[in-house]
Specification:
The protein is mostly helical and about 160 residues long. It has two domains: about 1-90, Serine Threonine Protein Phosphatase 5, Tetratricopeptide repeat (Alpha Horseshoe), CATH 1.25.40.10; about 105-160, no CATH class. Helices cover about 75% and strands about 0% of the residues. The protein contains nine helices and no strands. Helix 4 (about 50-65) packs antiparallel against helix 5 and helix 6 (about 85-105) runs antiparallel to helix 7 (about 110-125). The longest helix has 18 residues, at about 85-105. The N and C termini lie far apart (about 65 Å). The model has no long low-confidence stretch (mean pLDDT about 90). One of its GO terms (biological process) is SRP-dependent cotranslational protein targeting to membrane. GO terms for molecular function: 7S RNA binding; ribosome binding. InterPro entries: SRP72, TPR-like_helical_dom_sf.
C-alpha cells in the first residue's frame, strides 16, 4: 500500500472528537452547505445526544434548504429535550400555511388534494385533513403510500378525540 493511502487510511480510522465535528459544522454553515450541516449535526447528536447547538443547527439547515417537513420532524424528535424550538416551529408552520393558501382556488386534482392533505396533517388540522382524504377517494388511486398516509391520519385523528 502506498504511503499516501496508508496516511489516508490512518486519518480515516482516527476517532473524531465532538470538537472536530463542531469545527466541520462551522465550516459547512459558513459555506452554506446545508446538506452537510445536517449530516454533521447528526454525527454530533450521535456522539453527544441532545446537544442543543447541534439540534438548532440541524433544524435551521433544514429550513435554509427549504426542508420544512424535515425541520418539523427534527423539532418533533427534539420535543423530549428541554430546548425551546418554538420560534422555528412557528416559522415552519407559517411556511406550511403559506403553501396551503397557494393551493386554495386550485382545481381539486388528485395531486392538489394529496398535497393539501399532507400539509393539513403537518399543521395538525386532522378534521380538514380527513375531509381532504375523503375528496381524494373519488380519484380511486391505488397507492400504498396514499393508504399509509390515510391510516396515519386516521390514527392521529382518533387519538385527538
Amino acid at each position: 500500500m502506498p504511503l499516501k493511502s496508508k496516511v489516508a487510511a490512518a486519518v480515516a480510522a482516527a476517532p473524531v472528537t465532538v470538537e472536530d465535528l463542531f469545527i466541520a459544522l462551522h465550516h459547512h454553515i459558513e459555506t452554506g452547505d446545508f446538506a452537510q450541516v445536517v449530516k454533521v449535526a447528526d454525527q454530533v447528536l450521535k456522539a453527544a445526544p441532545g446537544d442543543e447547538d447541534a439540534v438548532r443547527c440541524k433544524v435551521v439547515a433544514h429550513i435554509k434548504s427549504d426542508g420544512i417537513n424535515q425541520a418539523l420532524t427534527a423539532i418533533r424528535t427534539a420535543e423530549r429535550l428541554l430546548i425551546d424550538l418554538g420560534y422555528y416551529k412557528a416559522y415552519c408552520q407559517n411556511k406550511l400555511q403559506e403553501a396551503l393558501e397557494l393551493l386554495r382556488g386550485q382545481e381539486e386534482t388528485s395531486a392538489v388534494l394529496r398535497l393539501e392533505s399532507q400539509i393539513l396533517y403537518r399543521l395538525g388540522r386532522m378534521n380538514d385533513c380527513m375531509n381532504s382524504y375523503e375528496k381524494l377517494q373519488k380519484f380511486k388511486i391505488d397507492s400504498m403510500g396514499l393508504k399509509i398516509n390515510i391510516i396515519a391520519a386516521l390514527v392521529v385523528f382518533y387519538q385527538s378525540l
